[in-house]
Design goal:
Blueprint (H helix, E strand, L loop, with lengths): L7 H10 L4 H19 L2 E4 L1 H14 L13 E5 L26 H8 L3 E6 L33 H8 L5 E5 L6 H7 L2 E4 L20 E5 L2 H12 L14 E5 L1 H4 L7 H15 L3 E5 L4 H20 L3 H4 L5 H9 L5 H21 L5 E5 L11 H6 L1 H4 L3 H6 L3 E8 L5 E8 L4 H13 L11 H5 L19 H13 L6 H9 L1 H16 L2 H4 L9
Parallel strand pairs: 2-3, 2-4, 7-8, 7-9
Antiparallel strand pairs: 1-3, 4-6, 5-6, 5-10, 9-11, 10-11
Amino acid sequence: MTHEEHTLAEAAAEVRAGRVTSGELVEEALARAERYDDRLGVFLARFDERAREAAAAADAAVGSGEPLGPLHGVPIGVKDILATEEGPSTAQSRVMEGIWDVEEAAAVRRLRRAGAIVVGKTSTLEFAYGLPDSTLPFPVPANPWDASRWPGGSSSGSGAGVAAGMMLGALGTDTGGSVRVPAAMCGITGHKPTTGLVDDRGLVPLAHSVDTIGPMARTARDCALMLEVLTGSPAAPPLDRLDGVRVGVATMAEVAGDGADPAVPERLAAAVDHLERLGASVVAVTLPLHDVMVDASFLTIAAERLSWHRPLLPDSWDRYGASAREGITRAAHYSAADYVQAQRVRRQGQLALAALFDTVDVVVSPMCSRTAPPLGDIGECMRTWKSLVHAPYWNSAGNPAASVPIGFAADGMPLGLQIAGRPFEDALVLQVAEAYQRVTDWHTRRPDLSAIDAAAPGSVAGPLRPPALDTVDPTDAALARALLERAGIVPSDGDVATVAASLGAAHGATQRLWEVACGDLPGALGLGYPGRP
């Protein structure tokens, strides 16, 4: 097999044994980037010469008697919202030029100390949430399985880069699914660790209470190896069997609704069957407070996003992309009391989940309801994120969750299985994932990159077009303008109209949170909250 076909763990072992050189691995990775990245948009910056120098040093160390790390000589990518010593991080935004001069991210330092070689910074969404925009000076990432489609986000380049063999592992971040979704859509493995488990110093934040740095690679074993390095805790040994492991299966109606691709329930059922054959006991479960936990996640992200960007807004508003501006303005809907109630709901969900995990050890569900959308449909994909992607619930709760490949839909695009566990039981999540991968081969499938040249390029929309100000209710417009100005934004008519047009949906979400946080449900769940504030 070619070196690209090695898993990260296999490649590191081969380098340490002297059977493969780090130079060979790095050159293959760089050659693939040189050949295909103009179509795939994986990298914002490549560090070719630094990577070659590091590979030469890694090869010189083999056989020298020096201790070699578990990732010795292996090429990896780093999402461009994590600081690296090679240069400033941009978070794929013009706003960041000259303002993010910090020490290298702690997670990146740990990987380097373990011997990994950073080959470049991978593409993302603007500040991990603004949609790709063909008018901005950044690459639009594409999916190696079909270059007319999105690789998922926001760790887009990391997912596409691993799938395309431009790196053997990568760092992503996950605030609402941004590791697991591109892992599923690109046919690789990704893990969102328990919130707070991985040191996030050096990360451009999206939402500080939710952000999580996680590994992306071919296999669950690779992710476990990277997580061992990131946390300093030894990876758990593989499980030959899952005897005694209790698996809860989240109902399709709850997490996927009626719009799921027909292949999703079929592939989910097949995956659950494999887990049963491995000895696991399986039972259907209902995820407590599912919808309002997702609402709480979205509100928390919006509010914490604005809190970080607030000092930048007066001087940098016009440097944000249109989609990023829309995301920031969304937080103007919410009050401090709304934010507090969202945190109360999150806590209620955590306690209810703890009760659920008294009866099961892991919970499995589809990762996404459908396969990767065409690049031109990303906007619609993001608007329907709640029904398309089944990740934010676990971000709201903080539990660990992984995505592993479980097959393909009729359109030839990959699908993923989500496996979630108790807080700080990341090892068990990855053990179950690895056990599944030992009896299936979906994770070994590779995209045919030769098809990229023949395929028609995908097109992504330009900037979002706001509604006309005269089409929104004048009272809503006046409120929206006041909210934006209070947030330190000097709004355009388009900004005002955008916020005014979405006031109704925001009110609906906050109303649901208030009903749960202050209604009768907390008492009914036995969580000890008073019926009224």
